[in-house]
Amino acid sequence: MNPFPFRFPTGLKPVLFTLGALLTAAAAPAADNLIKVRMSFDDDMVVTRLADSLGYFKQEGIEIVPVDIMTLAKDDYLLQEPLVKGQIDAAEHWFNHTIFGARHGFPIKAVMMLDDAPAMKIIVANRVKDQIHSAADFKGHVVAEGAGYATKAVITGYMAHQAGLPRKSYTSINHPTENRLQLVVGDLKADKLDVMTFQEPITSGILGTNLATTLYDLTSREGTVKALGTPFPAQSILMAPQFIKDHPDTVQRLVNAYVRAMRYLNSHTADEVIARLPVDFFGDKDRAKQVALTKKTLTSYAKGDYSFPADAVHLVVDAMLWARFDNSEEGVWRASGDASKVKVDELYTNEFVERAMKAIPAATASAEPANAGVSIWTQNVTGFRKEHGSVGGYTKQWDLGDLPHYVPKVHLTGTLRVWGNNYIRDGYLAGYWQEAFKKFQPDVTIEYHLPTTGIGIPALSCGVADVAMSRRAIIMDLLTFEQVYHHPVTEVDAVTGSYDVYGWSPPFIIVVHKDNPLDRISLKQLDGVFGGARTGGYVGSVWHTEYPFARGPEENIRTWGQLGLTGEWADKPIHTGGQTLRGNQTSQFSDLILKGSDQFVEGYQAFANYITPEGKINSWSLQAQRAIVKDKQAMFYVSPMTLSPDMKELAVQAYDGGPYVKRTLETVHDRTFPLYGRYFFYFNREPGQPVDPKVDEWLHFILSQEGQDCVQREGRYLPLTGEVVQAQLKKIE
After folding, report:
1. Which residue from 252, 245, 247, 296 is spatially nearest to 270, judged by alpha carbons?
2. 516, 648 in Cβ contact below 8 A?
3. pLDDT in tens, 144-184
4. Do both 658 and 696 map to the same domain?
5. Model's pTM, two decimal places?
6. Can you spell out the DSSP letters for 150-164?
7. What phi, psi does 261 have (nearest 5°)?
8. Helix (H, G, I), strand (E, B) or coil at 417
9. Is residue 186 domain-shared with residue 83, that is, in the same domain?
10. Are 715 and 506 in contact, with CB atoms under 8 Å apart?
């Protein structure tokens, strides 16, 4: 029986947990010796689940007894009375409940702050963003702000009030919870909304339309302080004053456990935190979407200090007492009661959390796990790929009308042998292509051999493959083929790499520490940063010695001042890093940025995947992520899956100039983002001879509307544009 039959109105909805089963380890105290703490919870339980999975509750000798607040009160906003009456001992909920409790004669106290930001964004429609530069400009506009009793609406109105606007200076729109994103986006597209105030996942949905821009980002302490002047205590641990007085030891144990969990959360990456959550945390919901959502919400947790700043508490009190809530039952309750009973100093105590923070010092960033010293390729790499390949992707469907339809020129029989890229088999694309092609060519057999990309071009060289699907051929691929056949292999683009899916050729991205003021860089500058003086570079299998393949040290860039930064940054060295030089991605990075020279900057920090003694893969991306967090002077090339709140992704300019382009789904698809990924089909074509009919038909299918529709049906790789397709068709004429 699930002991947590809670109602979760919106947002992240984890499967609630049975703590008893997790408290039976041999080292745990006997159940009869544990101090039982009856708690109710809001919908965000990451810290609680983390504390439980890491054993911090039992370490402190306590057992959490979940209580459904709906069995004790009409709704969860009335949790103060059950706390004061001793029906529950603690609650994890928003700090502002202390204010409303005081107003209604049920005073409670917050003993620890979990979030110091309200995890919301105030977003402006692009069509009016030139008119709205701050809250002072909300006057006369239409603002969507969720429910009229909610903190989002309070903060939006309070910011306008602080900016000097009287009440009702703007028109407030409240969309119902059900289908809220669709309703908001619909109104945005219809030009009915000017400003929108929401939390995840609504904010990402709005920004994903490319019709709106963030004005205020209150998803972290830094952004909240910038917008409000102080942090904003949100999720907190709440208790009744009498319970605190009668059971100080229990309070301290509970706070200790939560401080330990917060120390872990603060010192580990988002991926590491999620990996420690119980396997049932996301229940039957789409794991990829829930993982992405959880990562976005982690930025609002307090970092290092979980005590309540006095000025922050005053801000929340001032905002809540200023607010005029809506006429809903909850809104009327929040607005009623005796405001004179709200005594700021009685709403919280830092006694227990300060003691816990002193006894449990902040952890340093996690050290890299041990290396088992065995090849990762002997392990379950396919399972790793499929797990990580389930995160990311897209649902957008492009108009493929500028691509030709596939019209068979000949009727095929026999077998077409396709070797190489494992990812089309790890996903669904190989099956989609086979099924669609056979509708036109029912008498041909598609014979796939897809253990790994690396086997594709060697299979062509050995004559056992008709086509090979591969990443850009490396020098040994080309030399082997050319020594066998004495002519170059033919290369045709098959797909554009993914936007953000591990393994499916996502773009390179260039990242710096979040505190770095740099926000853009050109490919030529990247050559200066990551490269060195060189004598030449490869294009395919041909060595070139002319400029820019060869260049001198005068184009090296080694300090941030050379990139235009001033002040304290000007003379600081740039610390570069990325994947090992033996990695495929680094070879492609060299081809694109360093002109095929492999001449990397001195001090480049190289990372590689390896196996831990527990049989887990410690990916190079996560190692790079941890290195960047610790180094404000870092500039790394990484994959998009490496991104964390401690990094900033740079816009990139092409070699021939033009705009600095940010990575978006659209700019990767249309290849205006210069660091996009690609995958190819390779085949053997004698100079001056026609393409083998089976290969010719297959490639014309791949480059057709029907073939590229299979690509977007899977939603990982991106379909080719008409311009790219026309260029590829010329290669097989």
Report:
1. 296
2. yes
3. 988 888 899 999 999 999 999 998 899 999 998 889 999 99
4. no
5. 0.58
6. SHHHHHHHHHHHHTT
7. -65, -40
8. strand
9. no
10. no
Specify whether the CB–CB gap between 136 and 160 falls below 8 A: yes
Of 158, 174, 166, 102, the residue nearest 139 (C-alpha): 166
Cβ–Cβ under 8 Å, residues 469 and 679: yes
Inter-axis angle of helices 351-359 and 248-267, nearest 10: 50
pLDDT band at residue 240, thresholds of 50, 70 and 90? very high
Tell me how many domains the chain contains.
4
Q: Which domain holds residue 328?
A: 19-115+233-359
Asked if 627 and 643 sit in the same domain, the reply is yes
Q: Which residues contact 643 (CB under 8 A, 6 or more apart)?
A: 509, 511, 649
Tokens of 254: 């509970």
Helix ranges (H only) for 208-328 are 221-228, 241-246, 248-267, 270-276, 287-297, 310-322
In this structure, which amino acid lies at residue 529? Answer: V
Amino acid 193: pLDDT: 96
Give the CATH number of the domain where residue 620 resides: 3.40.190.10
> pLDDT tens-digit profile of 123-155?
999 999 999 999 999 999 999 988 888 899 999
Contacts of 702 (CB under 8 A, 6+ apart): 433, 492, 494, 681, 708
Dist. CA 53–CA 17, nearest whole Å: 10
User: Distance between CA 452 and CA 457 in Å, rounded?
Assistant: 11
Helix (H) or strand (E) holding 57: helix 56-59
- pLDDT tens-place string over residues 405-457: 999 999 999 999 999 999 999 999 999 999 999 999 999 999 999 999 999 99
Q: Are residues 350 and 247 in the same domain?
A: yes
CA 58 to chain centre: 32
